[in-house]
Amino acid sequence: MSDLPDTMKALVAYGNGDYRLETSYPVPACGEDDIIIKTEGCGICAGDLKCQHGAAMFWGDEKEAPWVKPPFIPGHEFVGRIVKMGAKAAAANGFSIGDRITADQIVPCGECRFCKSGRYWMCQPHSIFGFQNTNNGGMAEYVRYPKTSVISRVPDTMPLDQALLIEPYGCSKHAVDRAQIGNEDVVVISGAGTLGLGMITYARMKNPAKLISLDMADNRLEKAKKFGADLTINPGKEDVVQKILDMTDGYGCDIYIEATGHPSSVVQGLKMIRKLGRFVEFSVFGEPVTVDWSIIGDRKELDLMGSHLSPYCYPFVIENISNGKLKTDGVVSKTFSLEEWETAFDYASGKYGDFKVAITFE
Ligand SMILES: [Zn+2]
Ligand SMILES: [Zn+2]
Q: How far is the CA of 357 from the centre of ligand 1 (A)?
């Protein structure tokens, strides 16, 4: 299996708004520290969509320099089997050809202050699979894992639709861990897309006093209920702030985890959270959030926590997806071939009621 073809199918981003399906793109070269996998599948993330739509946080504008480095292959939620290993990579880890693996989306530099102190997910140069030509992503038949990749083994028996949730659920776990949920807490998780659902099913394991899911889409709320939410509320139909206040003797929820990406969800959370409560921000926003910050200090003395990526989360997530404690049923709601990438990206927007949409190979 070590003789790979010279070329492969790949979706390549050449520039803002210029994504092309290539049928004979070069297969990545395997350096002595590298591992090459044959891709089984790759989930489409909101970040991939925002990038494809040309968001300034990726492509830059008059204020910001571009972060992406085209031409690059998108995708960071992928899994595959090892087809080639460099001599040093083979010696340095216990992997064999044919092993099924996945990696954290960040490729740490291994040398900055954060990497050296074990906080690799905040690595200063911050290379991520799928946005720069130095670390091409999973929307291609083959992907190169460089030396510093944070690799985890995926059980052979795990169905692909579950394996594709390892990365998003890893991010969900980290956000919920940041919230430090106790058994007496009333926890509100705003947003029940793939990430929010991952948060619900993991937060369920923490057994809070009440676990509440908010979303504007009823089919998502139904799923949240199946995944362990005690109560679901659609803020488009009900006065959700009043409802939470009524149910907590007017105090508000103890913990609010924001996972929608909509500024209104931040405003709503700051209104419904109790004094001295804990607010966890996970989302990436398409526009600035405007809010009176006095509520954070003067009025409520809140703990405001950020959450980014999935540090040290993969082993737990893989084990608990495998044993069924983390629910995954129907979250990967549609899969497409790479040739159908435009349709796949369209469905991944969620406008047809999908959760996670993925590209699969073969
Ligand atoms: Zn993602
Ligand atoms: Zn680093």
A: 11
| Rounded distance from Cα 47 to ligand 1 centre (Å) | 6
CA of 238 to the centre of ligand 1 (A): 30
Report how far ligand 2's centroid is from the alpha carbon of 217 (Å).
Answer: 39
For helices 194-205 and 166-179, angle between their N-to-C axes, nearest 10 degrees: 50
47-65 pLDDT per residue, tens = 999 999 998 889 998 888 9
CB 261 within 8 A of CB 286: yes
For 178-215, write each residue's pLDDT tens digit: 999 999 999 999 999 999 999 999 999 999 999 999 99
Output the DSSP codes for 179-247: HT--TT-EEEEE--SHHHHHHHHHHHHT--SEEEEE-S-HHHHHHHHHTT-SEEE-TTTS-HHHHHHHH
Closest ligand by atom to 122 CA: 2
Q: How far is the CA of 80 from the centre of ligand 2 (A)?
A: 25
For the chain, strand residue ranges (E) read 7-15, 18-26, 35-43, 77-85, 100-103, 106-107, 127-128, 142-145, 151-153, 186-190, 210-214, 231-233, 253-258, 273-281, 303-306, 332-336, 356-360
CA of 117 to the centre of ligand 2 (A): 9
- Nearest 5°: the CA angle 197, 201, 207 is 135
The pTM (predicted TM-score) of the whole model is 0.96
213-263 pLDDT tens trace: 999 999 999 999 999 999 999 999 999 999 999 999 999 999 999 999 999
